[in-house]
Amino acid sequence: MNYVTCYFLQKEWLKTRWYYLVAVLLSLGFVGYVLLNFFRAAGLKGIAHLWEVMLLRDAVFVDLLQFVPLVVGLLFRRGAVRARNAAQVPEN
Question: Are 42 and 50 in contact, with CB atoms under 8 Å apart?
Fold first, then answer.
């Protein structure tokens, strides 16, 4: 890689590193929450019952995960707007 590419990647990493960390933690939190709910239901009714419900009644136990990309995208959008506003030099 040339110097300009390395500089650009480093600059973008400096702007987005905290948002990336928050996005990873948010994603792991969502997955952990869904898995805890699933294992709680498995403990109450048994895994065979959950498998039957998922197959015969089309029940989805991980429907909350569909919102993870939306929340992470909004987080990165807010960070990009904030970085763009910080980079603008106010006119005198």
Answer: yes
